[in-house]
Amino acid sequence: MSVSIMEALQNANHNLDNLKTMPMLLPLVKEQLNNAATLLEKGYGIWDEVEPLLEKYGDVDNVPEKGGEG
Fold first, then answer.
1. Sign of dihedral through CA atoms 57, 58, 63, 64?
2. How far apart are CA 26 and CA 56, in angstroms?
3. What is the CB neighbour count within 10 angstroms for residue 20?
4. Are 11 and 29 contacting, i.e. CB atoms less than 8 angstroms apart?
5. Burial of 18: CB neighbours in 10 Å, binned 0-12, 13-18, 19+
6. Cα 43 vs. chain centroid, distance in angstroms?
7. Which of 35, 38, 41, 45 is the most buried (most CB within 10 A)?
């Protein structure tokens, strides 16, 4: 199931609330926040989906700037 950048941020927020009881969530939270922040910096909107971009480019750092997709 693909989530939008907004949903990734909401999931990260929810997971942060659960860190006290499940500290193993920290790497996941960091990844969710990094993916969302990086995609926003690259010009993607809050409703753009994260997973299709990661599947296509392999890594959030490889995703091109919005409008530069090829």
1. negative
2. 25
3. 8
4. no
5. exposed
6. 13
7. 35
Tens-digit pLDDT profile for residues 1-48: 689 999 999 999 999 999 999 999 999 999 999 999 999 999 999 999
Q: Is the entire prediction scored with pTM above 0.90? A: no
Q: Would you state the structure tokens that stand for residue 51, as one six-digit string?
A: 């997973």
For the beta carbon of residue 26, count every other beta carbon within 10 angstroms. 12
Closest-CA residue to 60 (of 46, 15, 44, 47): 44
Residue with tokens 């990094």: 34
Q: Which amino acid is at 46?
A: I
